[in-house]
Write a structure and sequence with these properties.
The structure is a single chain. The protein is an alpha/beta fold. The chain has 2 domains: 188 residues, 3-Layer(aba) Sandwich (Rossmann fold); 122 residues, N-(1-d-carboxylethyl)-l-norvaline Dehydrogenase, domain 2 (Orthogonal Bundle), CATH 1.10.1040. 44% of the residues lie in helices and 19% in strands. Strands 1, 2, 3, 4, 5, 6, 7, 8, 9 and 10 form a 10-stranded mixed β-sheet that branches. Helix 6 packs across helix 9, helix 6 runs parallel beside helix 10 and helix 11 crosses helix 12. It is globular, with a radius of gyration of 19 Å.
Length: 322
């Protein structure tokens, strides 16, 4: 446990809304550092944590982390920091559930895929919202079990286009950096978080749907020349749509980022692949689907992203079939 003197005094109680793999991982890291953490998640996951503690498999070891867990958003009351980790399609509903329990002084961090979740949250909650870009490879190994495969760092910044009340000032962002550092979670402040969000979206678009449709990890995808060529087509489309939205993403830097993911997370299945394996709806509407939709709105063709989105949706449409 870290020295309590290193814990910023303004952040005493942490809650995680939507504690799946990502939320449970960061909740566990903070709880291991001595912070008071409450996870809000699905009943089976919550019951396992209440019974046995959260099982965190990391670095070849299994850590048992004791922390509070429940399924009622009312547990957010009194939290100084809330991590929103729900699926992108659930963002608006989660915001409406959270809003009555959030104090204006609360900090709400969006640890989600996609580029517009923080703005969606800010439209409905009474507190400041901090967009965060998440770089971690994790998966649920069953109720109450989180498996960590790599990384765990975050990038944060002021919300693009936010109101004065919702845009955190630099000292607030630095407080978050120090707070997560006490839990050995690296956080960096970026000058333009929109660029970082789009860059993460680009990588997700390059891997998630393909990994899901093939049910293969990143290194297997990168080993195929035709798949690498397909990923370059995806990247070029995302860059074109981002440019139409006012965000500049350099091509070579973007291609290098895609290549590095397969090296840094060779055994990782995308979150979309994990959802598909469990026959659960994915976030594809907010990944390749978002790029295709925004491209259509702005007159920028994105046929590869549109095709991948359609194929994933086709598979999902059969989940309820006999």
């Amino acid at each position: 446990m870290n020295d309590s003197a290193k814990i910023p005094p303004a952040l005493h109680k942490v809650a995680v809304m939507g504690a799946g793999a990502v939320g449970s991982f960061y909740g566990a890291m903070l709880a291991r550092a001595g912070h008071a953490v409450t996870l809000i998640g699905r009943p089976a996951h919550v019951q396992a944590i209440q019974r046995d503690g959260l099982q965190l498999e990391m670095g070849g070891q299994r850590h048992v982390v004791r922390l509070d867990a429940g399924s009622d958003p009312a547990a957010l009351a009194g939290a100084d920091l809330v991590l929103c980790c729900v699926k992108s399609g659930d963002t608006e509903a989660a915001a409406l559930q959270m809003a009555p329990h959030l104090d204006p002084a609360t900090l709400l961090m969006s640890l989600q895929n996609g580029v517009d979740n923080a703005a969606t949250l800010a439209r409905h909650v009474p507190c400041r919202v901090v967009p965060a870009v998440v770089y971690v490879a994790v998966a649920l190994g069953g109720p109450g079990v989180v498996r960590h495969f790599g990384r765990g760092d975050l990038a944060i910044g002021a919300m693009p286009g936010g109101t004065q009340s919702s845009v955190p000032e630099w000292p607030t962002l630095q407080t978050l950096v120090d707070f997560f550092a006490s839990a050995q979670v690296p956080v960096r402040i970026v000058p333009d978080v929109a660029v970082e969000l789009w860059a993460k979206l680009l990588v997700n678009c390059a891997y998630n749907a393909i990994s899901a449709l093939a049910q293969m990890p990143y290194a297997r995808l990168a080993a195929q020349a035709d798949i690498r060529a397909l990923q370059e087509d995806i990247v070029r489309e995302v860059i074109a749509v981002a440019a139409a939205c006012g965000v500049s993403l350099p091509l070579q830097v973007s291609l290098d980022a895609v290549a590095k993911i397969a090296v840094g997370m060779p055994r990782q299945l995308s979150s979309t692949a994990q959802d598909m394996a469990r026959r659960k709806p994915s976030e594809i509407d907010h990944l390749n689907g978002f790029v295709a939709r925004r491209g259509a709105e702005l007159g920028v063709p994105a046929p590869v992203n549109r095709t991948l989105h359609a194929l994933v949706k086709l598979v999902e449409s059969g989940y309820d079939a006999p």
